[in-house]
Amino acid sequence: VSTQSTGEKGCKWSLIQLRMYLMTKHGPEAVETLFRAMDDIFIKSLQSVQKIMINDKHCFELYGYDVLIDETLKPWLLEINASPSLTASNQQDYDLKFKLLHDVLTVIDMEGKLTGKEKRVGGFDLMWNDGPVYGEELVMEGMPHPPYSTNTRLGGFNDREENLKSMMRSHTNSVK
Q: What is the pLDDT of residues 110-153, one digit of tens each?
């Protein structure tokens, strides 16, 4: 997440940092509504090009979304990058992109360790699989519900390292 605080210099935050900042300024309900609206943008944008996307189990694409959040917390899709830059501008940006690439390689599963039923791999959440992937454990009391409640922890509540360790423990136990 890149934030522009002045016209001169911005900074980069993780989604968790952005979520926490917005929650302190706008409250958890408004921020949950924002993040669900962003989920909706991601799903609908991919559905709109689904028929022309390459569907080959031997390749993948990584997309980068540029979303502007206005003062009313409405998300606006600016662009989708088919080949987002993985060049790092500072140490925090490097760490974020390194974790992203690590998780991409885990999702690719070249070693065949995944079952195919995982809803969460590292920092990634499975949101859509020929229909919404539901995450009942994510329903928060008093929060507005979208037409579907996807399995997403966009910007919070997803400990990628613990998730990866848990997956490895499950795989190790199943191999024994």
A: 888 888 888 878 777 777 777 777 665 544 455 554 444 556 66
- pTM reported for the whole predicted model: 0.71
25-29, 45-49, 146-150, 163-167: lowest mean pLDDT where? 146-150
The amino acid present at 43, given as its one-letter code, is: I
* Paired tokens of 152: 């997403």
Helix orientation angle between 91-108 and 160-175, rounded to the nearest 10 degrees: 30
- Residue type present at position 6: T
Nearest to 41 by CA among 134, 152, 136: 152
Q: CB atoms < 10 A from the CB of 22, how many? A: 18
DSSP labels, 23-76? HHHH-HHHHHHHHHHHHHHHHHHHHHTGGGS---TT-----EEEEEE-TT--EE
Give the three-class secondary structure for 19: helix
> Distance between CA atoms of 165 and 168, rounded to whole angstroms?
5
Give the 3-state secondary structure of residue 3.
strand
Q: CA–CA separation, 164 vs 35, rounded Å? A: 24
